[in-house]
Write a structure and sequence with these properties.
Shape: globular
Distance between the termini: 27 Å
Number of strands: 8
Number of helices: 8
Strand content: 15-25%
Largest sheet: 8 strands, parallel, barrel
Radius of gyration: 15 Å
Structural class: alpha/beta
Order of helices and strands: HEHEHEHEHEHEHEHE
Length: 191
């Protein structure tokens, strides 16, 4: 899948289902959003799950930091790219972004903004690593989302602690393309 198509899918729906429990994959597949973030999985089940998501014509991202049984190094990323074949990855680790980019995967740098130092560090990291997109957590701090959107000049996804559509709208209003959320009742939300 091309980066252009992935970007189009990321922008197509304000909410991206974030799956922490394999049992919820089918629920996410029945919803409108074109993208799914897998925040779970292991070496024994992830290929089957990724294949099922792709067969449903959805874009799938693996959160590498939460994937079990596959090493978090260049060979692990090569294995993921060549054998599991997700459309992209999510990670907090800058070195994994570089490995994934080298393997042709779409990359999302996940950033936890806990204080102003973390925010400054995040901005520098994004500029040096140059991921395809950035995910900011928690998503319930609109002014931080606005600052990141203005500063990093990358597509921004907001995630974490989103509980209702008003919070989705606030994040989008500040410049986020979409939000990732585990709450099923907002997965079909559109403006």
């Amino acid at each position: 899948m091309t980066d252009q198509k992935i970007i189009q899918d990321l922008k197509s729906s304000p909410v991206i289902p974030a799956i922490r429990d394999i049992e919820r994959v089918n629920i996410a597949l029945s919803k409108k959003p074109k993208c799914i973030f897998l925040l779970t999985g292991n070496i024994l089940n992830i290929k089957k799950i990724v294949d099922r998501v792709k067969e449903s014509n959805k874009t799938v991202f693996l959160h590498l930091d939460l994937l079990e049984g596959i090493s978090k190094d260049s060979m692990g990323i090569k294995y993921i790219a060549q054998e599991i074949k997700p459309d992209g990855i999510i990670t907090t680790r800058a070195n994994l972004i570089n490995y994934a980019k080298n393997e042709g995967l779409f990359t999302i740098q996940r950033i936890f903004v806990l204080d102003s130092l973390a925010l400054d560090t995040a901005e520098k990291t994004v500029k040096s690593v140059n991921p395809d997109a950035v995910e900011i957590l928690p998503a319930v701090i609109p002014k931080v989302i606005g600052r990141i959107c203005r500063t990093v000049r990358h597509p921004v996804i907001a995630g974490g602690l989103i509980e209702n559509t008003a919070e989705v709208e606030a994040a989008i209003k500040e410049g986020a393309w979409s939000v990732s959320a585990t709450k099923e009742d907002i997965w079909n939300y559109t403006f």
